[in-house]
């Protein structure tokens, strides 16, 4: 082999080594989000909003107050021991006690979930129709409360809700790691049905509460 050919091979080897050295390792180009009617539990980076910005958004959103306990939590209630912040005002909510004694629909959602955006207005319509006969409580399943409030303002949704970036409610209720999920809870705090799909109308929600909770609205 000639000297020129040997130097050409050496140069090619050096170029190949440089490419291997700078090639990125262990980093995905995009988050893995499943298709279908539900969105997988991808979560954007966490940040802590200022209390001032949260206060302004809460005032603008005008959310309904979270339910307050009217009786002790029943023994064996699925949500026993879970206390979360109310999105409306930041107050602490003992969930098991807050929903005790009344049929409850708990809806898990997140600000980045497209099917949730379509479903939430239907939940608002159902809650307006149901009045005091059924609790409707949303659970924002992401740590970014500021974006949650912004989305609720955009959707004109004023439902009471709690902030659950750690997924405590999902685990306690045995819900799958997809969004949205609605969980129907009996007055005694036990789970009647887990529904991991978006509702398409208030009538669909009413049919589910009639079937699994025995409440006709």
List the helices and strands and how they pair.
Layout lengths: L2 H20 L16 E2 L10 H11 L21 E4 L5 E3 H4 L5 E6 L4 H17 L4 E6 L4 H11 L5 E3 L4 H6 L4 E2 L1 E5 L5 E5 L6 H12 L4
Parallel strand pairs: 4-5, 5-6
Antiparallel strand pairs: 1-7, 2-3, 2-6, 4-8, 8-9
Give a description of the structure:
- The chain has 217 residues and is α+β, with helices and mostly antiparallel strands.
- The chain has one domain: Glutaredoxin.
- Helix content is 37%, strand content 17%.
- The chain contains 7 helices and 9 strands; from the N terminus they run αβαββαβαβαβαβββα.
- The strands form 2 sheets. Strands 3-2-6-5-4-8-9 form a 7-stranded mixed sheet. A two-stranded antiparallel ribbon has the order 1-7.
- About 16% of the residues have low confidence.
How many β-strand runs?
A: 9
> Which architecture would the CATH scheme give at its second level?
3-Layer(aba) Sandwich
Strand content: 15-25%
Low-confidence stretches: 15-48
**Gyration radius from CA atoms, angstroms:** 24 Å
Assign the CATH topology.
Glutaredoxin
Q: CA-to-CA gap between the ends?
A: 89 Å
Task: Please tag this protein with its features.
two-stranded antiparallel sheet, alpha+beta, Glutaredoxin, 217 residues
Short summary of the structure?
This protein has 217 residues and is an alpha+beta fold. The protein is 37% helix and 17% strand.
């Amino acid at each position: 082999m000639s000297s020129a050919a040997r130097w050409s091979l050496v140069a090619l080897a050096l170029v190949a080594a440089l490419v291997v050295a700078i090639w990125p390792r262990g980093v995905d180009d995009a988050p893995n989000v499943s298709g279908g009617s539900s969105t997988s539990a991808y979560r954007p980076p966490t940040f802590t909003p200022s209390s001032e910005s949260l206060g302004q958004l809460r005032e603008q959103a005008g959310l309904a107050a979270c339910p307050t306990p009217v009786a002790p939590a029943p023994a064996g209630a699925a949500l026993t021991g879970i206390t979360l912040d109310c999105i409306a005002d930041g107050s602490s909510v003992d969930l098991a006690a807050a929903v005790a004694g009344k049929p409850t629909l708990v809806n898990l959602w997140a600000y980045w979930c497209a099917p949730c955006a379509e479903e939430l207005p239907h939940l608002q319509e159902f809650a307006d129709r149901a009045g005091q006969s059924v609790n409707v409580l949303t659970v924002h399943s992401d740590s970014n409360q500021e974006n949650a409030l912004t989305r609720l303002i955009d959707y004109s949704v004023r439902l009471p809700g709690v902030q659950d970036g750690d997924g405590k409610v999902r685990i306690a209720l045995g819900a799958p790691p997809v969004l949205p999920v609605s969980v129907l809870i009996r007055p005694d705090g036990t789970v009647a049905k887990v529904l991991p799909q978006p509702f398409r109308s208030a009538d669909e929600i009413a049919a589910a509460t009639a079937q699994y909770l025995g409440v006709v609205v």
